[in-house]
Amino acid sequence: MGRKWNNIKEKKASKDANTSRIYAKFGRELYVAAKQGDPDPETNQTLKMVVERAKTYNVPKAIIDRAIEKAKGGAEENYDELRYEGFGPNGSMVIVDALTNNVNRTASEVRAAFGKNGGNMGVSGSVAYMFDATAVFGLEGKTADEVLELLMEADVEVRDILEEEDTVIVYAEPDQFHAVQEALKNAGITEFSVAELTMLAHNDVTLDADSEAQFEKMIDALDDLEDVQQVYHNVDLGE
Predict the structure, then answer these.
(1) How far apart are CA 86 and CA 127, in angstroms?
(2) Which ranges form a coiled coil (predicted)?
(3) Among candidates 118, 138, 149, 131, which has minimal Cα distance to 216?
């Protein structure tokens, strides 16, 4: 799973390069999570997870608080949660998650981003079955063995724990996200380089240089769309 962690780092680095876009995307996601339940991260687990993920992207507390206060204030913006699936060059697969207040606009923009960059949209279910929803945490200051021991003591099950350079990566089932998070925090680990739910492909594909360049252009086009929150894929991107 190490390659997948590299892709997560690559995605974060790309997003971090445009902070205004990141803030806007998180503002929308935080607002939706707060509107769907109690606007308090301590009692709304979905909101708490989005807040924790926002912190790993260096979203300022003021922006997090503003989005939650907006939900508390009774704003009536309505968003649909949508998932699109599609294909890129040479067997590459892509999943796109979006929050939108205009389904037709978003579908058109996502379709165009695929089509203009050598890809095409698929039907629902054409790609998702090749991915697993996964909780992922990245942390420093511990070894993989130390993290495994503390999670075992807390009776928390995980899929895998590995080390890459100075980072320990924990992979777990999605429903174990909060259990893993609490166990780590109870052990004094409060800072995470990654703390999110993602979609990890069963198998990765490697593209030639030209196809990879085209694929990255397609991913960038999708990620640049205002309504798109997350883009997942199965390509082993080069360094």
Answers:
(1) 7
(2) none
(3) 118
Question: Rounded to two decimals, what is the model's pTM?
Answer: 0.89
Continuous segment of H or E residues that includes residue 76: none
d(CA 44, CA 71): 13
pLDDT at residue 198, rounded to an integer: 92
Q: What is the pLDDT of residues 73-96, one digit of tens each?
A: 877 888 999 999 999 988 899 999
Is the separation of the CB atoms in 195 and 182 below 8 Å? no
For the domain made up of 2-72, give the CATH fold: Arc Repressor Mutant, subunit A (1.10.10)
In the CATH scheme, what architecture does the domain 80-129+203-233 have? 2-Layer Sandwich (3.30)
| Token pair for 136 | 């992922």
Tell me the three state secondary structure of residue 32.
helix
Q: What is the CA radius of gyration of the chain?
A: 18
Quickly count: other Cβ atoms within 10 Å of residue 225's Cβ: 20
Kindly state the tokens that stand for 215: 């694929």
CATH topology match: 80-129+203-233 vs 131-201: yes
Which residue type is seen at 192?
A: F
DSSP state of 234: -
CA atoms within 13 A on the CB side of 182: 13
Residues 197-239: tens digit of each pLDDT: 999 999 999 999 999 999 999 999 999 999 999 999 999 876 5
The CATH class that applies to domain 131-201 reads: alpha beta
| Percent helix / strand / coil, the chain, rounded to 5 | 45, 25, 30
